[in-house]
Amino acid sequence: MPALKAPSPYSSLIDLDDLSPAGITEILDRAKAFHAEPPPRDLLRDVSVVNLFFEASTRTYTSFALAEQRVGADVVALPPGSSSLGKGETIADTALTLAAMGVRVIVTRHPHSGFPARLAESFAGHVINAGDGRHAHPTQALLDLLTLETEFGKLAGLRVALVGDILHSRVARSNAIGLRAMGAEVTLVGPRTLLPDSMGGDGPRVARDLDAVLPHVDAVMLLRIQHERIASAVLPSLDDYARNYRLDARRLALLPKHAIVMHPGPYNRGVELTEDVLRYPGWRYAQQVSHGVYVRMAVLDFLVNG
Ligand code: NCD
Q: Which of 10, 20, 139, 253 is most buried, judging by how many CB atoms fall within 10 Å of its CB?
């Protein structure tokens, strides 16, 4: 018999608003502890995890796979195109099938916003959203929070600018939610056509003039233009975009000395950044990627073991 749906309020991680600030802190603390000292390899012994990715991924996929190995889970990967969802099976039936085999965790990425939430409704186990459409990417936001906290020793009061294609970015949405929940001050910067009208509630600050924002931030998070999700009419010219929003040597010089620059990857040289950024002492891309593995180990442990 498959287990009944887990009663824990944290049975799935679809976006960061599934977590309280205390829950976010707990995951970050666990990730830091795992970073300092590798946890026992049997943390998730006998727990079966399926990686169900319907969209290309280098970083996130590898990072989850390594995290699952390091906590000792039994891992099955279903590469895109190989699941029976393509044969007309419903999401609910896929969930039932995997649960009946004893799968406890599904890590999923999908081009459609809402897929992981639908799966979680039917699955008697834990669903972890590894990125859905333009909706959410909670583990990316957690690794970004960990990178900021490691750098500054706190999140509350930090001033963070998210720059670029905010409208189509699940990374921007999840970061805005997580950063604000932890007391950071978020400014969204980009051209009018790539900014949302609202992010809900008393939403984050929105600005169009990047040069005016840069002197007043502790961190800049650059975002890729999500061409695969953009109608061409939204972005008239890449040259215009680069002129106004590309981070280059001149703009780096506007930042306070202590400021760091982040990017979820994959980054596009010449579009949202120049090579100067890759040589900037505060460029934290590699730290972000490295933190990703620990954060994902912590999320797996948190959901499965409580
Ligand atoms: C991002 C994604 O896929 O949402 N990449 C990632 O997970 N590190 C960002 C992007 O594709 O631009």
A: 139
